[in-house]
Amino acid sequence: MAKDLGEQLARIGHKAELLVTRQQMLLKQNADLRQQLDDCRAQVIALQGQLQKANMELEHLRISSALSPDSKTVAETRAFISNLVREIDACVDQLIREV
């Protein structure tokens, strides 16, 4: 009986050591995972900031491209101004002849 009790105590002691070792390993793994989670959260915050900045830049580019004339519009505007200048010259010539 004493021998059985001694063996049982030895097995329980061995199992307790295994559990303590496993608990320490799990605690370290938990701490590592928590650190990894904190790093990922910080990275998410940084990426959200970059995304917000990129979205603002995109919006500014959209606005500026809408405001800037394209080559067709520039050509049409120049032709319109040239026609106006010709009409003004014609009017000035007509006024000079009448005077």
Task: Fill in the keyword field for this structure.
99 residues, 2 domains, mainly alpha, 2 helices
Verbal overview:
The protein has 99 residues and is mainly α. The protein has 2 domains: 1-68; 69-99. The chain has helices at residues 2-67, 71-98. The model has no long low-confidence stretch (mean pLDDT 90).
Q: Helices and strands in order, then pairings?
A:
Layout: H1 2-67, H2 71-98
Short description:
The chain is mainly α and 99 residues long. It has two helices and no strands.
How confident is the prediction overall: mean pLDDT? 90
State the low-pLDDT regions, or none. none
- State the major sheet: none
Radius of gyration from the CA trace? 42 Å
Number of helices: 2
Query: What's the helical proportion of residues?
Result: over 70%
Global outline: rod-shaped
Tell me the structural class: mainly alpha
Query: Distance N terminus to C terminus?
Result: 141 Å
- H-E order: HH
Number of domains: 2
Relative strand content: under 5%
> What is the tally of beta strands?
0
